[in-house]
Amino acid sequence: AYLTVSIEPLPPVVVGDAVTLKCNFKTDGKMREIVWYRVTDGGTIKQKIFTFDAMFSTNFSQMENYRKREDLVYQSTVRLPEVRISDNGPYECHVGIYDRATREKVVLASGNVFLNVMAPPTSISVLAADTPAPFSRYQAQNFTLVCVVSGGKPAPLVYFKRDGEPIEATPLPEPPAGAGSWAPRNLLHRDLDDTKLPKSLAADGELGMGNPFPTADPPRGLAAEQDSVTESIPETVVSREFPRWVHVAEPIYYFRHTHAPVSDGTVEARATLTWTLNPQIDNEALFSCEVKHPALSMPMQSEVTLVAPKGPKITMTPTRARVGDTVRILVQGFQNEVFPEPLFTWTRVGSRLLDGSAEHDGKELVLERVPAELNGSMYRCTAQNPLGSTDTHTRLIVFENPNIPRGPEDSNGSLPGHRGFRFILALALTVILELT
């Protein structure tokens, strides 16, 4: 007897599709059985998923998860109505026949096929690395957007756009070896950037008037250490609000792409875009992360707009604070949508906070059991992200609390005993006058 077995190859399928595994065979012998196996652990384990026994003309499933999912269309065909990622992998069809020469001998042959199950990404999000972060108008800062794509199989193609235009970025496969080339540049003084140095210094060559990098050109994109400028600019040309480092015509972007397998068989992809932030041109810039995947009919995307905080909205509870109350001052939002997440810093104008600290970080400032001495005190909230900073103030008014006994002094600064004595003296004088 002869027996040949083959399984028709399958193109990649998407999660949820119906898949038919067809085992074709030719023989001149009598059918004995057909067994389908799912191969796992690199071929070390073969799990029966379907059996057809010709001797008893029965068929049944040996895999509980496959119950009600398989449909016997023909003796050599198994149908999976809705494939899952867990169905991904190799399958084998084993066919056995009785030898024509001797009915006691069984001839076996098999074929195999790989079922490639694809899954489109289920989520995509764009966030800023290292947030919340402060704004500095005196220090060049590197900014990084992170795009996280989850649920896809295989790994998707991720890329960034700015204002709808694809960004040409320099690949950065490995993290920077040291922080030196990536560290922000510290200027000489808070009120003295390199565009405001006296001309005498530049003339003396302390900052250099020629090529500041005689050996090699420095990277233009990331904020790097440099000890010189190429020209002297009068103080009136460059605004103190934004020093000279932000005046770059074309930002240089650096791109890194990584992916990590997840236990469910999918891949989490992470793409990062890094450049030297320029608040003048990057504020209100629209960045989008887009994903291409063979299981998607069109690209998947997520957008963010870089915006500095404006007009914080502050609420105070209770609205009518009394001595001894716990007062909460909270930033509820802004007049605009802010990205990335701001950093909030609270200070008390002209003094320290109630707990003795100079400042407090967080969206909420809590003042426990406020004393009367805080009446009229002013509190400043500074909200900032890498694109800008804004301040807002609120004044605390503390009213007297009748449920709390007075301290050693009343509101007029006199002792209670003195006040009672004056009252008794006034009463006595009134009685004497009436008697006379």
UniProtKB/TrEMBL annotation:
Domain of life per record: Eukaryota
Entry keyword set: Cell membrane, Disulfide bond, Glycoprotein, GPI-anchor, Immunoglobulin domain, Lipoprotein, Membrane, Postsynaptic cell membrane, Repeat, Signal, Synapse
SMART domains, per database record: IG
Keyword Cell membrane recorded: yes
One CC-aspect GO term: postsynaptic membrane
Chief place where the protein resides: membrane
Domain Ig-like: 16-109, 312-397
Cleavable signal peptide: none
Residue span of region Disordered: 203-222
Record flagged with keyword Thylakoid: no
Pfam families: V-set (PF07686)
Record localization: Postsynaptic cell membrane
Membrane-related topology note: Lipid-anchor; GPI-anchor
InterPro entries, alphabetized: Ig-like_dom (IPR007110), Ig-like_dom_sf (IPR036179), Ig-like_fold (IPR013783), Ig_sub (IPR003599), Ig_V-set (IPR013106), Nectin/Nectin-like (IPR051427)
UniProt-listed GO biological process terms: heterophilic cell-cell adhesion via plasma membrane cell adhesion molecules; homophilic cell adhesion via plasma membrane adhesion molecules
Function summary: Involved in synaptic inhibition in the brain. Selectively regulates inhibitory presynaptic differentiation through interacting with presynaptic NRXN2.
Quaternary structure, from the entry: Interacts (Ig-like 1 domain) with NRXN2 (via Laminin G-like 1 domain) in a trans-interaction manner.
Annotated protein name in UniProt: Immunoglobulin superfamily member 21
Organism: Orthonyx spaldingii (Chowchilla)
Organism ancestry: Eukaryota, Metazoa, Chordata, Craniata, Vertebrata
